[in-house]
């Protein structure tokens, strides 16, 4: 929308959007200029990116141990690292760097798994508020002695529920939290929780109406574990425990079935599609197009550190690539007609929607669009940034310009980030 205007109210929400040819455009620009409120920007302005799956304490683990299967990776690398967050100062150092880095990369809203430490999880919430990043922050709950190490698990159901309440109370009482951060109930995944814990967290979700996040049918191992223990799919099990609601976001979902998708759509739950980490740990490609066609709400996630990149730009690119591999197939020894799943591909504009408006819709937050009533969370992409990776040749259409940015821009091209109408970071 070259020459377009976005009017932002005092509350940081968008009041009006006017294209250059709109009848009210000139008057709107004149009034803003006279009031000293007209800001002119070169480059591209796009909505802020929404990351639906970030393991905040795993940021120091980025790129490590990725040759291991998921269950071994958790036991050998992840749980020992997350146990270090008993040190509040360590948590503060990591989380402030993480939030600043994500904002610099254009992630203006994030759905976070924290560790099982109350004080450290509160540090993550505090960092988001301080840097003006919208966030949902959850203290992970895990009490199953058969799947969680002795040094890193909740001692009882009462402990897990009380700790979840304590984090929610801290977030609600924070004097500077003007809607920036919300709590989220976070059973790590079905294998890590006892039945009693899942039942208690389901009751808590019904009581407080909080968001819920967990992993779902991520890998062969995780899917098979759930079937063996519960005799039903992960989606059906979560529904049974009251953890599948309009405010639920399920990470991965690679092995959900058509009936699972139908149940998800009925309940209004969403999926955080994490295409990069799926390449390492999932054993399959998430059937994104099928889920969208069945009315499932879907957004994108980086899955730091299962995904070795915190870039939502990278997540968009991998979304397109993964869908094309599922569509066409990958085994050259199979005949072309039986190699893939036809009709599974998505394009970059679909991926862009999922990374912005799709993520906002999954969280029921007014973010991800330039439209009246939405928060003005945005980023400026400068094609000419000195260390950037975009190259333009002067003959690009608006569509080509956006596609070039989404496929080739790097963090250096993101020169400004706003949340709530003000500079973030």
Automatic annotation (TrEMBL):
The protein's required cofactors: Zn(2+)
Pfam families: Amidohydro_1
GO cellular component: cytosol
Superkingdom of the organism of origin: Bacteria
Amidohydrolase-related domain segment(s): 45-421
Record keywords: Hydrolase, Metal-binding, Zinc
Any single GO BP term: guanine metabolic process
Keyword Nucleotidyltransferase applies: no
GO molecular function, one term: zinc ion binding
Protein name: Amidohydrolase family protein
Organism: Gluconacetobacter sacchari
Organism placement in taxonomy: Bacteria, Pseudomonadati, Pseudomonadota, Alphaproteobacteria, Acetobacterales
